[in-house]
Amino acid sequence: MNKRISLVVAFCMLGGMTASAVAQVNLPCGSARLVVASNPGGNSDAIGRVVAEAVNRNSPAVPLQVVNIGGQATMRGSIEVADARPDGCTLLINHQSLILSHLTAQGPVTYSNLVPVARLTQDYSIVNGASGAPFDDAQSFLDYARAHPEEILTGASLGGTSHISLLLLSELAGIELKYVSYNGLQERITAMLGNHIQLSEADIGVSARYSASGDFKPLIALSEDRIPQLPEIPTARELGYDVVFGLAHGIYLPAETPDEIRDYYANLFEVALSDPQLLAQFEANGTAISFLAPDEYEAALTVEFNAYKLLLENMGMLDMP
User: Fold this and answer.
1) For the domain bounded by 124-244, which CATH number is listed?
2) Residue ranges of the chain with per-residue pLDDT less than 70
3) Is 186 strand, coil or helix?
4) Shortest CA distance to 113 belongs to which of 88, 86, 141?
5) Nearest C-alpha neighbor of 244 from the set 142, 160, 169
6) Boundaries of CATH 3.40.190.150 in the chain?
7) Selection from 269, 252, 262 nearest residue 84 by Cα
8) Which residues contact 138 (CB under 8 A, 6 or more apart)?
C-alpha cells in the first residue's frame, strides 16, 4: 500500500470570530442531551463538557446536558442518538470512531445515518509508554519492539482510532504489538497507571499531563509538526514514518432532523467556540478549533469515510455490517 499515510483533513483556525445573535427555535424539551459516546474522563468527555459549558454560558433557550454513553468503540452512544426523535433534544459529539467502528463491524451507524451539524476541534495522537515500560524514548521503543515482536502489551479500543493509529505506525515501522482491548481512554489510562499495559495512544492534553507526573513516557507524536506542549517528542515523520493521525470532534443530530434545527445548533456551536474560557481550556490541552458548517462537514466526512475504507481494505480489516 501507499507508504504515505495522512488521514487528518486539512483544517483552518478560527481567528477573530465574534459572537453573534443565534436565531431561536422552539424545541419540545427543557434541556437537550449532548451524548458523549465515551466514558467519563477521556478526551471526548472533556471536549464535550467544555463545549457544553460554553454553549450554556450564552444562555440558549434550551441548555445542553452532557450524558456519557460509552462502549463498543463509541457505537453505543451513536446508536442512542440515531434512534432518538429528530426534534433537536438529543445530540451526539463524536470523532472518527463513528466511521472506523462502522467499517470494522462494531455497529450499524455511521455519519450518513445522522445529520452532521458542525466540526468543532482537531487534536493529534501521542504514542505513550507506561512508567514501567522497558523503553524510554522513540528509538529504544522501536528497537525493543523489533527485538520482541508481539510482546509489548498495548491498550486500544479494538477497531477504533486508538487501535488504527498504532496499526498504521506499526506497519510502516515494521513492528508487531500485542493488543489488549479496553473500553475507551479512561480505562487505558488506568491500565497504564497500573503498568498493566506498556503502551497506548492518547491525546495531547492527557499525554502532557501524565508526562509531567512521570506516569507516561511520551514517545512519538503522530502530528504534522512537534507539539508545543511536548517539544522534545519527535514526530513519526521525523523518524521516517509518514503517519499523521488525529481526532476531529463534531456534532450530530438524528436523521430527518429539520434543517432549521440543524442550522440553529451550527450557529450556536460556532458562537460558543469564541468563548474566552473555552479558548483558554483548549489551548492548555493542545486542542485546536477546526470549525466546519454542516455542508462542509458532511463533505469532509465523505472524504474521510472513503479514505478509511480504502485503507482498511488494504490492511485486510474492512468488515462493514
Assistant:
1) 3.40.190.10
2) 1-22
3) helix
4) 86
5) 169
6) 31-122+246-314
7) 252
8) 219, 220, 233, 234, 239
Alpha helices (runs of H) in 83-160, residue ranges in sequence order? 97-103, 138-147
- Write the single-letter amino acid at 253: L
121, 47 Cβ separation under 8 angstroms: yes
- Angstrom CA distances, 108 to 11, 78, 83, 207, 282, stand at 28, 9, 12, 32, 32
CA angle 77, 79, 81 (to 5 degrees): 75
Q: Grid coordinates standing for 142?
A: 522501536
Pairing relation of β-strands 5-6 and 243-244?
parallel
Q: Say what the pLDDT of residue 106 is.
A: 85
Average pLDDT in the chain? 91
* Contact (CB, 8 A) for 173 and 198: no
Q: Where in the chain is the domain with CATH 3.40.190.10?
A: 124-244
Instruction: Specify the fold of 31-122+246-314.
Output: D-Maltodextrin-Binding Protein; domain 2 (3.40.190)
- For residue 285, what pLDDT is reported? 83
What the block records as the C-alpha cell of 55 is 454553549
Q: Of 253, 240, 231, 271, whose CA–CA distance to 56 is shortest?
A: 271
Measure the CA angle with vertex 73, ends 69 and 79; round to 5°: 50
Identify the CA nearest to 283 among candidates 214, 225, 236, 229. 229
Integer Cα distance of 65 and 57 in angstroms: 13
Q: What's the predicted TM-score (pTM) here?
A: 0.83
Asked whether the beta carbons of 199 and 127 are under 8 A apart, the reply is yes
- Cβ distance 80 to 74 under 8 Å? no
Distance CA 276, CA 278 (A): 5
